[in-house]
Write a structure and sequence with these properties.
The chain is an alpha+beta fold. Helices cover about 40% and strands about 20% of the residues. A hairpin with a 2-residue loop joins strand 1 and strand 2.
Length: about 80
């Protein structure tokens, strides 16, 4: 079984597994839930900056998790109408 990378302390934010053609599956996290969790200890702006630098910016190879944003999708859907 392929080993998937996890983000320590964010098991409750896992949405599931993302599969891609020709690549191993990776964990998919709820970005908004992760930001909410970070914002419990800092401002929302600081949480976003910390997430961008320390989580999204932490490339650890092909097994790096992906992050799904519901808020961004809501914005995209509104702009398509």
């Amino acid at each position: 079984m392929h080993k998937m990378r996890k983000c320590d302390g964010y098991d409750d934010c896992i949405l599931g597994v993302m599969e891609r053609f020709g690549q191993e599956p990776i964990l998919a996290y709820d970005k908004d839930k992760m930001l909410d969790k970070l914002a419990e200890e800092m401002t929302p702006e600081e949480a976003e900056e910390w997430f961008d630098f320390n989580i999204i910016g932490a490339w650890v190879g092909d097994e790096t998790p992906c992050f799904v944003s519901r808020q961004l999708w809501d914005w995209i859907e509104e702009s398509l109408e």
